[in-house]
Write a structure and sequence with these properties.
alpha/beta; six-stranded mixed beta sheet
């Protein structure tokens, strides 16, 4: 191959629009499905938007305010407890990407930055949504920027999202160290306001500093949307390396860590496991799933384990 035709390998510390566009075939090979979503026979999907639609979905325990005309008398008689039928309507489902590019996401000791892996997964999701005929929207934020893209159909919506993600400003870390302490409360509150019922929402983050009301916002969203929480982490964040002194490069700055203290190593591991346990606890809420993606993993493989191929 001529030298001029050689493709530059993706950078482990930032993404370009070309990198994300090249993921189109891999994204189109994935069919996004949610726990309560199935493929419709004509166009789009069957939405989790609950109501009196055209296809029976499931029976669930009766809740105050349910229409008595939808009572499932067979299940009620069998269980001795009132149950109601739930239906779904055909509609193009909104797919919404919530992407965290704050300073802690610009870190890795293996593979690529957490933010790079998250951006790659966002691109795979975007191209899958386009191929599925879904409406694609997004919310991309850092300490200093906050961009919202309304759900829309077609490849143009994917390119608009990927252009936002690949902007230089997201990959040039803020000068102020204090910026790393900014939490994601505003972005999560805004997501709760803009997400439409029936959406499939994919939250891509390391889930640090979400804010005190994060769980409430997520539970509220899960009441009318399907959520997939993708937890990005570096292996060193899960388990410190063997005792010694190490120099770490992160978001444009360098610092040293000492890993010889056993109690410090234990506390470090416990903090990581506490954050992961909180996500697992949330995944027991109906409509919420949580999965892991390490910086040395391939996002397309992680998605392939969760969603069926086209």
């Amino acid at each position: 191959m001529p030298l001029s035709a050689a493709r530059t390998p993706p950078s482990p510390v930032r993404v370009t629009l070309a990198d994300l566009v090249r993921l189109r075939p891999a994204g189109e090979a994935v069919r996004l499905t949610a726990p309560r979503v199935r493929v419709a026979t004509v166009g789009g999907h069957l939405s989790p938007y609950k109501g009196r639609g055209v296809e029976f979905d499931e029976s669930r325990p009766y809740q105050s305010g349910d229409d008595l005309r939808t009572m499932d008398w067979r299940v009620t008689a069998r269980t001795g407890k009132p149950h109601t039928k739930v239906f779904r309507e055909e509609r193009n489902r909104p797919v919404f990407v919530w992407l965290d590019l704050r300073r802690p996401m610009l870190f890795a000791t293996r593979g690529a930055f957490k933010g790079v892996r998250a951006a790659e997964m966002a691109a795979l999701i975007a191209w899958s949504a386009v191929a599925n005929g879904d409406r694609l929207g997004g919310l991309v934020f850092s300490e200093t920027e906050h961009h919202e893209l309304r759900p829309a159909l077609g490849a143009r919506s994917a390119l608009r999202l990927l252009q936002t993600i690949s902007a230089d400003s997201f990959w040039q870390p803020p000068a102020a160290v204090e910026a790393a302490e900014v939490d994601a409360a505003r972005a999560l509150q805004r997501l709760a306001r803009v997400a439409r019922p029936g959406s499939l929402i994919l939250l891509l983050s390391d889930f640090r500093r979400l804010g005190d009301d994060a769980e409430r916002h997520l539970r509220q969203l899960a009441g009318h949307c399907d959520l997939l929480l993708v937890h990005f982490f570096d292996p060193v964040e899960a388990e410190l390396p063997p005792p010694g002194r190490y120099r770490i490069q992160s978001a444009g700055r360098s610092f040293a860590i000492e890993t010889a203290n056993e109690s410090m190593r234990r506390r470090y591991h416990e903090r990581f496991e506490e954050r992961r346990a909180n996500l697992r606890s949330l995944s027991r809420v109906p409509g919420i799933r949580a999965i892991d993606c390490a910086t040395d993993a391939e996002p397309r493989s992680v998605l392939a384990q969760q969603f069926r191929p086209r």
